[in-house]
Amino acid sequence: MDPRVFRLRAPFLVVAVLVGGGAAPDGSSVDSAGAPSTDPYLEATAAYFGVPLGEVEVLADWGLPVDEVSVVLFLAQRSGVSPDALIALRRGGTPWMQLARRYGLDAGAFHVAMAPDEAGALLGRARERFQEAPQAEWATFDLSDEELVALVNVRVLSRQLGASAGRVLEARESEGSFHSAYRAIAGGGGSR
């Protein structure tokens, strides 16, 4: 991983202090009262991207839906743009696909192979487009914010939980978010 991608900048550190998160002397995460805090979804996200949990927790506190934290890290890692810049642009209303294209990524970067019965309603249309078109055409696809967030989360959670794409999407459907889906799968078993 390119170390400049996740280099903390002064504003990032200021926000970390202001939101009250941080690290205990032993490097573990603490909440604003100084008590240990862990969120299994954020831990899995940090592990997948190889970044400190405290950094992921700060990103989660920046006002984006928690399911979008993995998208920030995915784009930052692949584009070399800092997470704080991506969050600022996203909070300003820029769609994820527009941000991806702005920094050199197209829909193909988000592709996740899955069986037709795994895609479900959320990713059925995207899966069909990827399946039916030659890979050279994937760059022309537009993904909705919901599709792009789902593809990144399916990639991350499938790997971290050892679960199929279908199992992750099924849990997301029943739980309402990937954050909650992680907890449901982790507490109830892995792949189907």
Q: How would you briefly describe this protein structure?
A:
By secondary structure, the protein is mainly α. The chain has helices spanning 10-18, 40-49, 53-60, 69-79, 83-91, 96-102, 116-132, 145-161, 165-175, 178-188; strands at residues 22-23, 29-30.
Please state the structural category.
mainly alpha
Q: Into which percent range does the helicity of residues fall?
A: 55-70%
What is the N-to-C succession of helices and strands? HEEHHHHHHHHH
Number of strands: 2
Please tell me the overall pLDDT: 83
Number of helices: 10
Low-pLDDT parts are 1-29
Explained architecture:
This protein has helices at 10-18, 40-49, 53-60, 69-79, 83-91, 96-102, 116-132, 145-161, 165-175, 178-188, and strands at 22-23, 29-30. By secondary structure, it is mostly helical. The protein has 2 domains: 1-105, no CATH class; 107-192, no CATH class. The protein has a two-stranded antiparallel sheet with strand order 1-2. A hairpin with a 5-residue loop joins strand 1 and strand 2. The model is unreliable at 1-29 (pLDDT under 50).
Summary tags:
disordered N terminus, 2 strands, mainly alpha, two-stranded antiparallel sheet
Task: Outline the secondary-structure elements.
Layout: H1 10-18, E1 22-23, E2 29-30, H2 40-49, H3 53-60, H4 69-79, H5 83-91, H6 96-102, H7 116-132, H8 145-161, H9 165-175, H10 178-188
Antiparallel strand pairs: 1-2
